[in-house]
Design goal:
Layout (H helix, E strand, L loop, with lengths): L1 H18 L6 H17 L3 H13 L1 H5 L1 H17 L3 H18 L5
Helix pairs in contact: 1-2, 2-3, 5-6
Length: 108
Amino acid sequence: MKQESAQISKTVCEEKLEQVDRTLNPLIAAKLMLALYDINLDLGDSQTAEEYLQSVKQSDEFNKSDEIQYLWLRKKATQHLYKREYLLAKDFLNALLPSLKHKHPISG
């Protein structure tokens, strides 16, 4: 059942990604690609998932949007945690800190 739901979600997201104007709606396109990353992982297609993640990193929106950078870095850190590559995961998590501190200053 979960496999069927993921496959339906993949089809819908791929259709939406084809329809969206990436010039006018780069944030929506990036979010769709991040969703497709998750869906493809759920389906066991790590190669396609990684291709979506790389597409997000190479998009103009990656450099413009703190939200997209945060989501991308979090996904990369999670990848390394699952592989027990803790030092690499730590590097990606540390990359998150400046944007988090900027948005939510830590007082102490």
